[in-house]
Design brief:
Blueprint lengths: L6 E6 L14 H16 L3 E6 L7 H6 L4 H25 L4 E5 L8 E2 L2 H9 L3 E5 L9 H11 L4 E6 L4 E2 L11 E2 L1 E3 H6 L7 H9 L3 E6 L5 H6 L6 E4 L1
Parallel strand pairs: 1-2, 1-6, 2-5, 3-4, 3-5, 6-10, 9-11
Antiparallel strand pairs: 7-8, 10-11
Length: about 240
């Protein structure tokens, strides 16, 4: 069965790469996510990826310890590039052609982000990984993911988490948390559900960009969702 979507942007948190560790990159988690991307690629889906950097460095925590907010965010952007390089290598080990584009110029490591070039890579069947966030402080990698999705004209943003979707409260703290199958961007904002920051949600809503939240720790969820199965939470206007 083929995918319902031609082009998607997958957003992974840096913390998801920690797996069972307290810091850094867990090879099992990295390989598990890469396997799902490979399976999606084999379906013919054009895939862009944005990965956070919280497993290595968080600007918010740094600013609480005396590092200037701008400097902390810049350090966080570099952490996303480290994760992106790791993911790129893992995909290429599986025979998938990739390109890494960064919002901060670092030519010895990656291409600068150029929208038309990114789209061309996708059309040629390459997985494109977008590193260094938006290149600006005060913006999260969630916002970067939505921005890149809009720029590459993706059909869908998939946010991979470690829970089964969006709940009315934290399911890891409350056994009675209720899972939403479908919800609107307005309801997400009104209920302050924090699936993404408000800037990212507003960008999705204003650009009529479909958002799905799924549990990427469950093997096969990405493929099931791409085929149209009811996986996770669907968010629209």
């Amino acid at each position: 069965m083929s995918s319902k979507y031609k082009r998607v942007l997958l957003k992974l948190s840096g913390e998801s790469l920690m797996g069972s560790q307290n810091f850094g990159i867990d090879p099992d988690a990295l390989n598990g996510f890469a396997d799902q991307v490979v399976d999606a690629h084999k379906m013919g889906v054009e895939i862009g990826i944005v990965i956070g950097g919280g497993n290595i460095f968080r600007g918010v925590q740094a600013s609480a310890h005396g590092i200037h907010k701008v400097s902390g965010d810049q350090m966080g952007m570099l952490a996303t590039v480290i994760n992106s390089i790791a993911f790129q290598n893992t995909l290429e080990d599986r025979g998938i052609q990739t390109r890494l584009q960064t919002a901060i110029k670092m030519e010895q490591i990656a291409e600068p982000f150029i929208r038309r070039r990114a789209i061309r890579h996708l059309e040629k069947g390459r997985v494109v990984i977008f590193g260094a966030g938006t290149g600006n402080p005060y913006f999260t990698t969630d916002t970067a993911a939505v921005l890149r999705a809009i720029e590459i004209e993706a059909d869908l943003v998939v946010k991979g988490t470690r829970v089964n979707g969006i709940y009315d409260c934290d399911p890891e703290k409350n056994d009675n948390a209720v899972l939403f199958d479908d919800i609107t961007f307005k309801e997400v904002m009104e209920k302050d559900l924090r699936v993404m920051d408000h800037t990212a949600i507003t960008l999705c809503s204003e650009n009529k960009l479909h958002l799905k939240v799924i549990n990427m720790n469950t093997k096969g969820n990405l493929i099931k969702m791409l085929k149209g199965e009811k996986i996770g939470t669907s968010i629209n206007n």
